[in-house]
Write a structure and sequence with these properties.
592 residues; alpha+beta; 8-stranded mixed β-sheet; 5-stranded antiparallel β-sheet; binds adenosine-5'-diphosphate
């Protein structure tokens, strides 16, 4: 299956969009997962902080009860006006406070008035002030061994207080209270990764690593709460304002919170309740790492999907490219095939034309050969026929006059003419029928000698000489004796014909290997006729002197023997004809 590039890119774009949408959709879920994980991690240090706070509080809890045991205190409460006693108790409390690192230790009578205080020397000392409205006072007065609370008090300094009743036997005569500065805790928490806040039952933040969160309420105050605070002066009411928190639950004891006015995106709030105190301690860590983790996870997933998509894309593109290449190849092939078909058709037409032309030419050649033959034959036969007619007329005239010898002479001439015509006829027969005579091993020298014997007759009449040197050893060739002799006679005759007019012509006959050369000193063969001399009826001789069949017949004879007949001009002038024959096999020679 293949796709167009546009479709592939469309597909990829659609998938990428879908992916982005899916990412956007699942992002909050992933983010919440990481937030919950963060909350779980935060729970551990929170627990430690809670334990540490509780340990510190517990450590000081027995202190007021111990100090309250001192008999001096009861005495002073019974003689409150005694300045010496009071000074001594004041000093005693001051030393105690220094020892336990409390910010104040003070003694109140049952009306709540402070009769002695460690801070007696300081400005703003608790001395002579009345704390009857404070809950720790009332609780201690009710007989609780120890109680504590956190207050802003009028000084604005946050502290936590322990109080214990001072007893005279069974009777409660006063209350001893110790105040510790709370700021020490805040400073311990500061600088950690998470912020810490501790809220009381009214959801007031009274401890926090963030000073700006101190004395702020994380939910709106009800009128009743407001009235209660105003009444016991627990917090500086004028400073209490709202810390606007929006929360979304993340799980048990964990929330995702936004605090208005904060620069940070939000916090992961992990909380733990201190049930006995009715406090809640919470750690607030920034959401940024969780968001980052979620983003990173999503990015990795996205990248993986993108990578997969890219691989798929590469694969599809490659498929498409291959398909395109194939289609192109097929198109090219089709075009090529069409071209070839057209060219083939052209060629076939051309070939048909050529065949037609060839046929026409052959036809024309045949006709011309026929014409040549007719002309040659009519000439060859007409001349002796005309002669025969006139000799016959003469003989008849001589006979009428009883001139017998003259008549006889004419009749003899007629007979000679008849012989000549018979010779011509025999030539023609030779040409027409190539008898499949047997071939065998021949002594080449013997054949040449026999041919020379035939030629001698002509030489005796016309003059001339044949120069022949027989070979040193016998040369055996394949052929027919009479026919080969006829070929050599023909070649020698042609050679003397070519040298007609020379005074003492010499034809050189030689044997070289299984080839017979016949060489003359005539004019040689003209370049334009060399291709034609073996054609039947080709002759350059005058009418009556040659039929133009000799070389043609010779050529065929030598071919029948499996040999070749060739003509060339000798470099020293004249023509040289060569009859190259097949050597006879030793077996054939032995059988001879
Ligand atoms: P013909 O002798 O009847 O002409 P041939 O076939 O024997 O027929 O010879 C054909 C032609 O070849 C001759 O007319 C002549 O022009 C040429 N020819 C043959 N032999 C020779 C030669 N030795 N030298 C030059 N021309 C030759």
């Amino acid at each position: 299956m293949t796709f167009s590039r546009r479709r592939i890119f469309g597909f990829v774009a659609a998938v990428a969009l879908l992916l982005a949408l899916a990412g956007a959709a699942v992002f909050p879920t992933i983010e919440r997962h990481y937030m919950r994980q963060q909350a779980m991690q935060d729970a551990v240090p929170l627990k430690l902080a809670v334990e540490s706070l509780r340990a510190t509080l517990d450590r000081y809890a027995p202190l007021p009860a111990l100090i309250a045991e001192r008999p001096q205190l009861t005495i002073l409460l019974q003689n409150a006006a005694d300045p010496v006693l009071r000074a001594s108790v004041n000093e005693d409390l001051r030393q105690t406070a220094a020892t336990v690192k409390a910010s104040d230790v003070y003694l109140m009578d049952i009306s709540g008035r402070t009769v002695a205080a460690a801070s007696y020397r300081d400005e703003g000392s608790y001395l002579d002030r009345n704390f009857s409205y404070q809950s720790y006072f009332t609780q201690a007065l009710n007989g609780d061994l120890s109680s504590f609370s956190v207050f802003g008090t009028t000084t604005g300094e946050r502290g936590y207080f322990y109080a214990a009743p001072v007893e005279d036997g069974e009777r409660i005569v006063g209350v001893l209270a110790i105040k510790f500065n709370i700021a020490a805790f805040d400073s311990i928490w500061r600088g950690a990764d998470s912020d810490i806040m501790v809220t009381d039952r009214n959801d007031f933040v009274f401890m926090s690593s963030r000073p700006d969160w101190h004395f702020r309420a994380i939910r709106p105050l009800s009128d009743a709460t407001r009235r209660q605070i105003a009444q016991n002066l627990q917090y500086p009411i004028d400073r209490i304002d709202l810390l606007p928190i929006t929360t979304t639950p993340l799980g048990q004891d964990a929330q995702h919170v936004y605090i208005e006015g904060e620069t940070r995106e939000g916090f992961i709030l992990t909380s733990q309740r201190l049930t006995d105190l009715d406090w809640t301690m919470a750690s607030l860590s920034p959401t940024a790492p969780a968001t980052l983790s979620a983003f990173r996870s999503l990015l990795i997933a996205g990248l993986l999907v993108a990578l997969g998509l890219m691989a798929l894309l590469a694969y599809l593109l490659r498929q498409t490219r291959q398909a395109e290449a194939l289609a192109q190849e097929q198109r090219a092939k089709a075009v090529l095939e069409e071209t070839v078909a057209i060219r083939t058709a052209d060629l076939q037409t051309a070939l048909a034309d050529l065949r037609q032309t060839q046929t026409d030419l052959i036809q024309a050649g045949k006709l011309s050969a026929l014409g040549q033959m007719s002309a040659a034959l009519s000439h060859e036969f007409n001349q002796p026929l005309a002669a025969v007619k006139s000799y016959a007329d003469n003989a008849s005239a001589f006979l009428e006059r009883d001139r017998i010898p003259e008549a006889k002479d004419n009749i003899t001439r007629i007979s000679k003419m008849a012989d000549r015509m018979a010779t011509i006829s025999a030539h023609l027969r030779n040409f027409a029928r190539r008898p499949q005579q047997a071939t065998g091993p021949l002594s080449l020298n013997t054949v040449v000698q026999d041919a020379l014997a035939v030629i001698d007759v002509r030489l005796a009449a016309e003059g001339g000489r044949v120069d022949y040197m027989p070979p040193q050893t016998e040369v055996w060739v394949t052929g027919g004796h009479v026919r080969l002799q006829q070929v050599i006679v023909n070649l020698i005759n042609n050679a003397f014909d070519a040298m007609e007019g020379q005074r003492s012509p010499v034809v050189r006959v030689s044997i070289e290997g299984t080839t017979v050369h016949v060489r003359d000193t005539g004019p040689g063969i003209e370049a334009e006729t060399v291709a034609q001399i073996f054609d039947p009826f080709f002759t350059t001789k005058e009418p009556g002197k040659g039929l133009g069949l000799g070389l043609s017949i010779s050529f065929n004879i030598v071919s029948d023997f499996g040999g070749t007949l060739s003509a060339a001009n000798h470099p020293d002038g004249g023509a040289i004809f060569s009859v190259q024959l097949l050597p006879a096999t030793p077996h054939q020679v032995a059988a001879q």
